[in-house]
Fold Aldehyde dehydrogenase.
Amino acid sequence: MEYPSLSEIDKIYALQQKNTAEIKQLPASKREQLLRKLLTKIKEAENEIQAALYQDFHKSALESTITEILAVEMELKHIIKNIGKWTKDKSVGWSAMFTNVKAYLHYEPKGHVLIITPWNYPFQLPLVHLAACIAAGNTAILKLSEFSPHTNRIVKKILQEVFPEDHVAVLEGEVKETTHLLSLRFDHIHFTGSPAVGKIIMEAASKNLTDITLELGGKSPAVLDRNINVRRVVQNLIWAKFVNAGQTCIAPDYVLVPRQLKSEIEQVFREELREAFGRDAINSPDYARIINKKQFDRLVEALTDAKHLGAQVISGGATDEKELYIEPTVIGQVAMTNSLMTEEIFGPIFPIVYYSQIDEAIKFINDREKPLALYVFSNDGIFNKHVIRYTSAGSTCINDALIQIMHPKLPFGGVNNSGIGQSTGWYGFRAFSHERAVADAKGFPLSKMFWFPYSERTHKFVQ
Ligand code: NAD
């Protein structure tokens, strides 16, 4: 693959630096126009986008539409609908001492932004974050992952049809190119990827005290209560875990199940997996593949190692290297030292961990890094509240999974190891804006009470 040379990167950077002041002045109406054009181009390119995602992931056309194209279109429509309101100054309200002060927040574009994205949703992630960045009035360099070349090509083509390079530039590159980009001074860096690389981004940003958003990953648990409809919950989990072959940042990573449900849930998983993907999932038109050999090898090694350490495959387990195929796999009795339990799985392997008391499940979660998402399934509201109250997570969905990310009014983000800052909708717009505090004194300046020389009057006032 041809990546830009470092001097080409410098040229694009300089071009955008020069243009940033002008772009910051674009009125909301002009930004909205550009986003409308982007929406039209995406609609026109739907077939090409689906084809590219099939080439990168063997992803079905319908899944590509649901999880990638519609997600972007919905976000764009939401931004277009609200941009006029979001860009307006916002009063912070009245305060007794400040009756003659108009206090408000002014939404100032941050300026020049670097957006770095991963390979797992190579259409949705770059465009959703870029849309907010443009709405907020910034210039952007978008650095795509090196592992989704087909989708990258269409992302680049669409964006080049809408934006000149001194407004939005799309680059591909590996560590060398990204490291170079990180040595340049940006006003905001928005990174989506692993916690390990997130730390590299944060360190690089600290050199210039650049503001950051880190959308990271981790092990997101699903916690089940006894009081559930097992079949419905299993169907729900199968979709959430095996969509995009488990390569979803908020996919349930493992599931905590009450010991009493052991034989029932294992049986239902076998039945429902057969129902979802047929006798042989390799022939299912709905089931995606692993992105590349490196990820495939990592997952197969983890699975093999788990089996050596005594894990029991409840369903699935087949692999095909030529196809980069891993069967939807549910596994029990995984050793806690196995990488399936120590690292984010990010693939179609689903460990079940049994617990006796809910506090044991909560301790299990809290002994690990704070997850990006936590799912809780129970018909008992007190159970759900209890789990939320005693754990921490970027987001939570009760009695469903993944849909929290689709809600236009909820922010998306992690907490500590799973992320810093928030994205999407209003929160995405806000992340790419500087919320400037403005106090506009009308008439009599409040500070006159403290002016020099300090006097009896000042003294009385502070008492
Ligand atoms: P990654 O961290 O390896 O790579 C992400 C980006 O960083 C890529 O563009 C890559 O080129 C770049 N990069 C890689 N190594 C780098 C280095 N040493 N220095 C500078 N840049 C570097 O992640 P990935 O494998 O592409 O994606 C998987 C991870 O992303 C998972 O942890 C997943 O949970 C997470 N993720 C999070 C979200 C979210 O919204 N929170 C969404 C999707 C994926």
Summary: The chain is about 45% helix and 20% strand.
